[in-house]
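Incident review: delayed structure delivery

Summary: a single-chain prediction request sat in the queue longer than the usual turnaround. Root cause was a stuck worker, restarted by the on-call engineer. No data loss occurred. The affected request and its eventual output are reproduced below so the record is complete for anyone auditing the incident later.

Affected input:
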Amino acid sequence: MIKYGKKLINVLKNDIAFFNELHFLTRQKKPLGEDYDKNFRPIFDEIIEKGDDGQRAFAREMNKGRICCAFAGGWTKKYKRSARIITDKSCGLNYTFYNTRSHGRKKLFFMKQWEKAFCRDYIRCLLMEQDVLSPHFYFTDTVMGALKNGGTMLDMGVAEGNFTLEFIDDADRVYMFEPDSDWHEPLKKTFAEYRDKIVLCDKFVSDKSSGNSVSVDEFFGDNIPEDIKLIKMDIEGYEQNALNGMKKTLEKNPDAVLLICVYHKQYAEDEIRYTLSQCGEYDIKVRDGYMFFSEDPELAFPYLRHGIIECRAIR
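Output delivered after worker restart:
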């Protein structure tokens, strides 16, 4: 089974026009033809043969269109319109007006090297990812209410900052962990008027601190905040490591709502559930639907994975 994962990685590297991350997270613009039949149809045929009803429906949609992407379902088809991209002449960065759910439109800046066409694709991807029917959807009522009375938030894997942008007006303090330095300038522009609330850490989050990595517990040391209300982790498969490095922080913040991505690795969801069980008793909710994440070299049946788990300690 692992051979499929390695093969797909090679396809991704060799045909970036079709197989870049954005197109996998959204929807292929045209059928892949023989490339699909060679690299993807065997995977989706196996899902149709062995998977559950939801998995089979996902696979049939991919086979019907000879397309391959992270999401399936009729709801994905509405994300065709392009967002307006504007250039800030004072800094050369492109931005768009992002519609937050509670606090209106806000400027969201992109990496300096990104051209407008790429920014449009990116924001389309972002909007699709956060559709209410998406398995990667963050913003449930519980999540949106976590900071209604203020408090601290941890955003691990900030990227462009859309998650923090939803809560920045309500939070008292936000710790943003983003090791990709190309995001730092646009993040500083996006959150310029909130600089007194923001702490930006440029290290990878892990289970221990060394070099360019940091554990949450060691990051705070003896000053762990006790008003953390919301924690988001989207850190490319290192979510379990991050959990192992923040047990003291979780213990001091039993009311925190956790949003954890579980699709980056084959067995991530099971492993993260186990790690949480070692930290206490948690109420865990899984988003409906499945994702296909082809970039995992350990890709194996059932191939499709849940996107997000939302959890909170049971007191």
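Verification: Residues 133-313 form a domain with the Rossmann fold fold (CATH 3.40.50.150).
Action items: add queue-age alerting; document worker restart procedure.
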